[in-house]
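Crash report, auto-generated. Payload:
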Amino acid sequence: MKKTSNQMLVIFGASGDLTARKLIPAIYNLYKGNHLPENFVVLGVSRSNLTDGEFRKKVVHESSYLKEKINGDAEDFVKTFASKLFYEDLGDKYDADYDRLSKRISDLNTKYSTDNNYIFYLSTPPGIYEVVAKNLSAKGLNNEADGWKRLIVEKPFGYSLETAKHLNKGLQSYFKEKQIYRIDHYLGKETVQNLLVTRFSNSIFEPLWNRNYIRHVEITNAEKVGVEKRGGYYDKSGALRDMFQNHLLQIISLIVMEPPIGDSAEAIRNEKVKALKSLRIMRDHETLFQNTIKGQYIATEIDGKKVKGYREEEGVDPDSTTETFAAIKFFVDNWRWKDVPFYVRTAKKMPTKVTEVVIHFKSPHHQIFKDTNAFDKDNKLIIRIQPDEGILLKFGVKVPGQGFTVDRANMEFYYSSFADNYVMDAYERLLLDAMQGDATLYARADEVEAAWEFVDPILDYWKNGKDVITHGYPAGVWGPKNADDLIEGLSMWRNPGENLADDDSGYCVIT
Ligand code: BG6
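Recovered output after restart:
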């Protein structure tokens, strides 16, 4: 097991939702799992006027997000956890003199022997990341002479290629790249990490992982929910920025990449960057028109109940053309993937929540059995990221009886079969990695920029292109009807059900 040194976690934006919803529960799980170092404290920093006690009450004792987790745990055990939490009010803005903050950090460090090792977690609006980094550096809190210093930042990493570059440059003027950890919670998911293992620890898959055997690759990321209370943020973002530029391109890079020379953070990230750089960037409007589909959910009625359309959501412009559905077809310009189309879609208000990768293999080169040529009978490898996590392989079997009639059978593996293994939640895993200085599952600056390079022209076309259409789709169906047009030939999207082995659930409505 890797060592976790004594340290302090300083969370900026500590009175916000993410801290209570994700960070504190993740730290509690680490505490419960005995993963925290002997000397460890959390210092919440924000612009709300809270005492240590009020902060503890808010994020531990009275937190609805922690309620279930602490239920059944001894009172003293929970109290000891809460006693590791402190709070510092920064006043009315983040761009302030960090004198008092720096003194508080130093006092806590001395009192609790955290060895001058600090993680600064920026759970604040991205607009102030640079300001916080600047003010920390002004107090020497980026200096690693007496202990390591790390900076974790949440997405979005920029709004476009230009702003991402600007942000990277800004942060790098105060912290070295190796001190910066860009969190993408999809990389914290076991099933996303398992993409590497599926590919590189199985000699039955890797030899087939190329244009000679793969016809096309399909990735679906569907959410049942709409924009909920985040309409204000989402309307300026849209599905492409919110999900595709980060989470989906991370998954894509793991599917596309060449074998790394080892499992070090740099070896893996170097290959991911190369993969992202090999995506063919679509620039001319004709190509963009033919290979991208943009949609938005509209109001509908389900079981007699009215379901809101996107434009009626709180915080959304009533004339908004922001996409809640994005489907992209693209190619990868390298030896391995030449001419293999990738189809990727992400959307809100779909019939079910599901993220999966489908590798569609080519038909056998010479058909000797009748009726085997039907496209839906080709081999498929379905890697389910969530839910019902697992892997499904579809292969041909002989139907009993005379002659050689071929049907498809399923071979499945379910993560739930590891019932005895505790599976860390994404934030828990990622936080522990950062605490141990392992950046493998964090995005590097060049990775983020390569992702924006691919996405930027699509965003620009969707914003300024003359022939762009925002297709409406009733909340609760698999997106606009023409989404299947993107996939030429005999195929269409696999519209998966809640369970891995459910085949095309078709166009249905949510309940
Ligand atoms: C976030 C997006 O990054 O990921 C949300 O901002 C989205 O809009 C969420 O709902 C999805 O994450 P998960 O883990 O539930 O698939």
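Post-recovery validation: The pocket of 6-O-phosphono-beta-D-glucopyranose is lined by residues 223, 242-243 (CB under 6 Å).
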